[in-house]
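TICKET #2291
ISSUE: user wants both folds in one file
ATTACHMENT 1:
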Amino acid sequence: MDSQLKGTDIIAIKYIVIAIAQSVYPFVIYVSGGIGFIVLLIGCFRLTKHGKAQQMFRYYAPSTTFFMIFSGVILVSITNFFQMLTASLFPITSLNPQNTLLRYMNDFSNISTNQQTVYVLYSVLMIVGLVSLIRSMILLTKVSEGQEGHLGRTISHMLAGIIAMNAEFVVNAIQNIKIFLL
């Protein structure tokens, strides 16, 4: 009975990774594109206000408009942004989230139960990291408006998102540093 339960757990964990790779990740990408499109439209609307005189004591900061357009473009094309970033910074390894999730799915039957649990954790962290990066792009517009306290949040969301999306790479790097020091 114990071996049957173990086989059921493996199948359940595999379906969790498949659901993350085929359902949750594309959903977050589509939501990111929608948010980016809205932010881009707001930035373009703000562009029309810069040449006009102030209306009712309303000042449109040029830096906010720039960061709105920048964040909107990044969020609309986030998958292409990841491909460009990984191709230019990491040409040997593939840190593209979609490819990594698909690799987790394909390697699932050939690994131990502990490694399968780690793959599920990495998959969830990848989604959390993507949401954190989206949040940092939105907070970037608030930083340019001069609101206090948002710069630290923006940088921490950006760094946490990068680390969470590349959790496997970060863990391997820490383990290699540990082996090197000992």
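ATTACHMENT 2:
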Amino acid sequence: MHAKTPEPYRFGNKSKERFLIKPPTIQEWAALYDAAVRFKKLQCWNWLTEEHVFGVQHPDTGEIGYCCVLGRLGEVFALNVYRGTEGLKGMLRMASGELRPDEMMVAQSCLMASFEDRDQLEKEDTSIIKQLGLKFRGAKAWPMFRTYDPGFVPWFLTGREQVVFLTAALEQASLLAGQHAKNPDALLPTPDGEYVVRVPETSGGVSTWTTRRLKPQEKARKASPVRTESTAVDELRLGRLHKAVQKLPTHWEVDLFHAPIPVGEGERPYYPLMLLIVDGHSGQILHAGMFEPWGERPDIGYELLELAERVQAAPRQVWALGEEVLATLEPVLRGLKIRGVVTDELPALEEARLGILMGF
């Protein structure tokens, strides 16, 4: 018997071809709700803060989830499990204030077990609760489980892997929190970046958990595939354009970001990628484009080249927030003799971005 959950679909594929992932059984759902009830009963947010971050290793995949307890302020009661080193980095960026509020929603990679009022739950949540024969009463008493994935709207748990991981995290969080009720700061990461991590071990067919101090593992970063129109741009084309365009005494600001405007119905909605190119002096939006967040990332260099050819003009400089964006622009910047500048802020583009979002 399986609990009824939204049908899973394959992310990162333009056609969104469906594929079967193993759904959780009703017994696995029962274990998750039991772990959540026990976690809430402990009320460990009375002595743990968001700074007490610890890890739990996935019993099947080995991935480490970095756990953060919410509830000290009495507003949100939850356990967030940030997935892997990239999830941890995202959490730290949010904690440092580096991300705008609208960026936080699309930057997280985590599983969340929260406790909500009844009217916050969807029919998918209450359907499982009814199948399990559970009853909850009162404010902030109803368990709710969600997955947060970069570029997508928060969604229900649809796979066994998610349910098993969150169950283990809740169980081990309860154990660690109980052990450190009188000395919670022992759960703080060390100055050299080691975290307390609960690790499952199997010996002689018997599974146990042990506590270790581990540093987050840096994986070789896979560059997002990028459409390669600009790399195919020949030097002759760039040379002709360089001679033909008018060099403007201004700079253009360029950024590619997730627009906090969910798109899609029926399946899991997503936040599209938005490309903006804005004149830094006049604030005029020179180019805007929307792209799906999966598959190949848009080739910003090609978009810039097309814009320069269309308006027969180019700036003296192009500003971007990071080296990654400038790297995709490099062939075109070099061919058109435009200086690329990494900056901490794009004031004209930010004003344009806010104006666009206010229109939705």
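RESOLUTION: both attachments delivered.
EXTRA DETAIL ON ATTACHMENT 2: Residues 160-179 form the longest helix (20 residues).
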